[in-house]
């Protein structure tokens, strides 16, 4: 097993650039994309985008497929499936990396999770690991049949919570020839133990509350939601973790999208709190690249997962010097470093 750990050089401070200049107003983009440099039209010789829907277990899934410059349906291209973060939608960071990878010659797909974003499913904002994992399988189903895709050259990129779910999906789905994660987040561990294991004392209390929420749904049909608090700037500043402070800024202000929300059904915790992204991780035998910021307070999850992935053909951990979790979503220097690593990785592993 080949294992290397690299630390990127910190070249230019992106703190000198105003955040507003590195985002886009979804209302001004025909595809409602929120990231800087987002495609606004399908122009010849450039990346093109197709917004579409497909069925997955009788639910309409809303997806964006990005095609490389000069795409021709009769040619053969490698493809990359991209799973978005918790609370995120395809128009945010997942779209940014889908577009940038399409520029490198890949057909990429990113889709809103079932019950979330522009995808169907009721009640809204169910957030169960089994659904998110099935979403990834479903994207592979669809893109493998897309005109021009070489079904033998499909890679997987999971971002934040999508990274944890990507690790689970790839355990059994060997259509994915290689797996990459960015700022990986183990949703089950965090919902169970709290962020940075800060809420272990209240596990049973929260499980009881989730149980009561499910019982209420069955009895009354009324759904209880959590994670939908509206915080003031002062309250955001007072949050104890960079991920949450910067996350509220990214999702609520600079890269906001009306379909993006932290809200989810409390009864989902019955599934979330018993889930763990690293269970059965030895089933992953594909090449693995894990990328995270050296200053991310979520880094402990990437490091744990990396160490436990002992059956991979090869694995690499790449740290972006100076980056926090959310900064890997939008800061140009960090994004460029991620794209360089992903390009080298997928060129090597999707042959």
Write a concise synopsis of the structure shown.
The protein is α/β, with parallel strands linked by helices and 351 residues long.
Q: How many helices in DSSP terms?
A: 10
Name the CATH superfamily assignment: Alpha/Beta hydrolase fold, catalytic domain
* Topology order in helix (H) and strand (E) letters: EEEEHEHEHEHHEHHEHEHEH
Q: Roughly what fraction of the amino acids lie in strands? A: 15-25%
Tell me about the biggest sheet? 9 strands, mixed
Radius of gyration: 19 Å
Dominant shape: globular
> Helicity level, as a percent range?
25-40%
**Cross-sheet strand order for the largest sheet:** 1-11-10-7-6-4-5-3-2
Poorly predicted segments: 1-21
**Averaged pLDDT, please?**
93
Number of strands: 11
Distance between the termini: 19 Å
CATH uppermost class = Alpha Beta
Q: How many domains in all?
A: 1
Kindly describe this structure.
- The protein is of the alpha/beta class.
- It has one domain: 3-Layer(aba) Sandwich (Rossmann fold).
- It is built from 10 helices and 11 strands.
- The strands form 2 sheets. The chain has a 9-stranded mixed β-sheet with strand order 1-11-10-7-6-4-5-3-2, with helices on both faces.
- The longest helix is centred in the middle third of the chain and has 18 residues, at 203-220.
- The radius of gyration is 19 Å and the shape is globular.
- Residues 1-21 have low confidence and may be disordered.
Give the topology.
Elements: E1 2-7, E2 48-56, E3 59-67, E4 77-83, H1 93-103, E5 107-111, H2 129-144, E6 149-159, H3 161-172, E7 176-182, H4 187-193, H5 203-220, E8 225-226, H6 233-237, H7 242-254, E9 264-265, H8 269-272, E10 288-293, H9 299-308, E11 314-320, H10 332-349
Parallel strand pairs: 1-11, 4-5, 4-6, 6-7, 7-10, 10-11
Antiparallel strand pairs: 2-3, 3-5, 8-9
